[in-house]
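Render this sequence as a predicted structure.
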Amino acid sequence: MFGMQYRTYKETMLPQLVRLWKEEAVRIRYKAYESPEEWKAELLDKPDFDPEGCILAFTDSGSLAGFVTAVSQKEFLPGQNNDNTPGYIFMLAVKEEYEGRGVGTGLLEKAEAYLKAQGKHEVRISHKCPVKMSWYIDREGHEHNKAPGIRTDSPGYGFFLRRGYELVQKEVSYYLELEKFYIPADVQKHIMELKQQGIRVAWFDGARNFGYEEMFGRLKDQSFLKKFRDGIREHKKILIVEDRDGRVMGTAGTVYPEKNGRGFFSALAVDPADGGKGIGNVLFFSLCQELKDMGAEYMTLFVTETNFARRIYEKAGFSVVQEWAILKKTV
């Protein structure tokens, strides 16, 4: 590796950092933010960002050759703590002219050392990183609000594997233009059959609905429960499936069209106690229709490669637009 000076982030470095982002991260389809201020708000102003974990590599002439951002989670869900959660590599980008010259390796080693000093035993590249940035679905010109790992068709995938990272699982990203969406006749029939049993898709009503705490307890997913509570606290519209008494049997979480035209939903979940009734299928098709009716132009989502729900998404017209890998390494 030739001479490089490694420095932690200072505010004076922001213009160079944003310029390199636009040159290199955008080359692999990350969103190009309109201004340094917008980019800063997406990363540097987030509570989990630590300047000590953002390391920049400069040449002797002062040119920025690359940077890496390591993230150590600061806010924890019940059952989580600093010791039992991984550290994350959020982004590693090297200017094209310096690729293959040891810059990426040097940055990665320093990022791993930072996370180890934070008490982390494992490093991950994953959608669970608390800092996220949007990426473009290039053939459609639309975006997804977070990258679920590292693209398997990118040079970075092999780079991390060669440096001791292991594949945890693969994820696939799906896309659908909602103009093309419709609810098939067999799903419409099933919606009517459930209604006859007193089961229907509805908007959450705090005065009527109950049982969601118990549902999330059976799902054993505190992140879903937090998103649901946040939606209630923020007075957002929450799509649910309820029985005739008002008990929550499933939810798509907070639902709304984003400014970019993307239909957003926070978490799709069905109570395990109500499995086998086809509720997930009905909920998902109803969710797509609601977002279309609300004016959303398209939807994106990602799911584990082996997830059985893929057949529901494909029946609804979604197509795969990208494959991702979630990686880990013990430090």
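Summary. The radius of gyration is 22 Å. The first helix runs from residue 14 to 25.
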